[in-house]
Amino acid sequence: MNDQAPRARQQQSRQGAAGRPGRPYRRPKKDPARLLAFEALRAVDERDAYANLVLPPLLGTAREQPGFEARDAALATELVYGTLRRQGTYDAIISACVDRPLREVDPPVLDVLSLGTHQLLGMRIPTHAAVSATVELARVVLGDGRAKFVNAVLRKVSADDLDTWLERVAPPYDEDAEEHLAVVHAHPRWVVSALWDALGGGRAGIEDLLAADNERPEVTLVARPGRSTTEELLAQVGADGGLPGRWSPYAVRLAEGGEPGALRAVKDASAGVQDEGSQLVALALAHAPLDGPDTRWLDGCAGPGGKAALLAALAAERGAALLAAEKQPHRARLVERSLAGNPGPTQVVTADGTRPPWREGAFDRVLVDVPCSGLGALRRRPEARWRRRPDDLKGFAPLQRGLLREALRSVRVGGVVGYATCSPHLAETRVVVDDVLREGRTAAEWIDARPLLPGVPALGAGPDIQLWPHLHGTDAMYLALLRRTA
Q1: Which of 38, 56, 77, 376 is the most buried (most CB within 10 A)?
Q2: What is the rounded CA–CA span in Å between residue 263 and residue 409?
Q3: Is 0.70 surpassed by the pTM of this model?
Q4: Which of the residues 97, 301, 372, 422 is marked catalytic?
Q5: Catalytic: 422?
């Protein structure tokens, strides 16, 4: 009898409530790529972290594990960035598939649902594989109970393709153009409105811009003059892995993304990772016509150091010195790292550009790349579009105006100031410059920046320039050049 008891209990465990045979419990399988993607999304949600800062160390740790391959890293990267970019669209679709407001769905559950929805509607993964893999992830990170909820919702999502869903959840363009574009292209409505105002024109242009924001940007390198060349960079990247820049003579584009940190030139800071738009801003300031001496340059908002490094290299070719100022000590240390090995004289100081320690008129050229909303870099920081609010611009406004005022005081009469920002929002670009010039505290005049970027098309009516992702393949950098006159 005792010998029969274990067998009887085992048989009973395989019976359903009605005595029918049941399935034995199966442990969920851990998919390293999907699990890593979930961990990255949780960090973005819980800590307000940025994916481009969270993902690399997670991938670095995963690569040390046996069996984690390059394709796993590529899958995890696409899952994270694709899910974040399309978050607004996926939220609208998921909302139509659940019986409660999304705010009542636990954030970890919503992250898993979003990852599954991206696989179903935004990637070329077969429906069965997308659903089953996401349910397995849910079992690992949420438990079997909530995995059933995930399975039920994803079954509903998988019933239609993306175009059909958009017809259901987005209002018709003719009834509400901005809301239609917001849902279809996954941007908050206020961002759509602000970008449209800055861009101008009709439907085609704004749709192209919003679509470009949802594309994965190229990794672009800069060969710092006097320290490396584009030819050397291309040789290090390899014939099949690199392309010359579109507009900057110092740019190299990584065709397949690649790992720039593994390149010798990036390790020794003779080259760096820098969007081509940022390179063009530095080049325009460096090439602006100047009467008189040209020996003292200032980067008044230098952190984390990309533009400062390029400016320092350009200054060194003319025998000029660069002072790089950064308010935050940890960012000032990043600037020092970027400038290490520069052939010309440089100095890094921790200083507030709105209350500068240097004397008035001390410099011949000044750049202030001011803090801003970052709406020009939504391709690289897709989570930023969901975090920013219109009121954020009010917080930046006094700082932007203060930095520009002091930049104009810091340059000598006849010297040049470049006001730059990675935002096309009018409240952060032309409005700031017009307001400061209207105050008249320091007399200055516009310089037409367009001729300083030869070969770059579609720069607008001037005298300032606005770059665009869909027109130039760059971040949406803005630059105004001003000459102090009195």
Answers
A1: 376
A2: 41
A3: yes
A4: 422
A5: yes
